Amino acid sequence: MSVPDEVDLSGDRKRLYRFVERHGPVEPSVVAETVGVDPESFQHHVSILERDDLLTEDREGRLRPRLQSGEAEEFSEAGVSYTVRPARPADFSGVVGVIRAVTEERTYITAETVAEEFDYEETLFRRTPTECRVVFVATVAEEVVGWAHVEAQEQAKLRGTAEGTVGVLEGYRRHGIGSHLLQRSVAWAASRGCRKVYDSIPATNGAAIDFLERNGWRIEAVREDHYEIDGELVDEVMLARRLDE
User: Fold this and answer.
1) Residue intervals in the chain for CATH 3.40.630.30
2) Is the CATH number of domain 11-65 1.10.10.10?
3) Is pLDDT of 25 > 60?
4) What sign does the CA torsion over 102, 103, 107, 108 have?
5) What count of Cα atoms within 13 Å lies in the side-chain half-sphere of residue 127?
6) What is the pTM (predicted TM-score) of this model?
7) In this structure, which topology does domain 73-242 adopt according to CATH?
8) Which candidate, 144, 140, 48, 58, places its Cα nearest to that of 95?
């Protein structure tokens, strides 16, 4: 059986990966039955996806996307105990719900778009030959109260930058949750060799801009009248955190 020089995310292999991406960790037999491929072809596709660092097996032999994003961390600040960790497939509805709650409160166009992408793709994660996306969550009593998402490009000319969003439910702010989430996403981008992480926020969302600036982000540019919100033209503020300084 010949092995292709590059990962081929097309046909059965693409459907196999997408199913694991949305439902993992998942038993190989469930994947094979759902995708509908014969055992020999299934094992070949899994072997190639594992070779290209796209899939891995957990201790129970279940398939899951391979995303190097670290372990859970426990914090307790101002009377609130919480965990910051990589998101799991079971966190999907919680993450989307928190993003929508935060963006209803304050305008955050990029985060709104991210929520729609998650909902459309039915997964928080993405690892393809062209892009890689991870999500971190903050949980209180196992309930998601905040998120940080970061997405990096795999193309050589774009690998130096990543885009991120972060947000916390109103009732859980001022406990350091947002800063810890931001640190995890920035650390992940740095581990991939990114030079900077950026985010774009409407000028009317002063709280988000102030938060990023307090955490070492800088305003790189302002695009005038970039958004139209409630019939008014609003500037876009583009912020970035340099990782190579």
Assistant:
1) 73-242
2) yes
3) yes
4) positive
5) 21
6) 0.73
7) Aminopeptidase (3.40.630)
8) 144
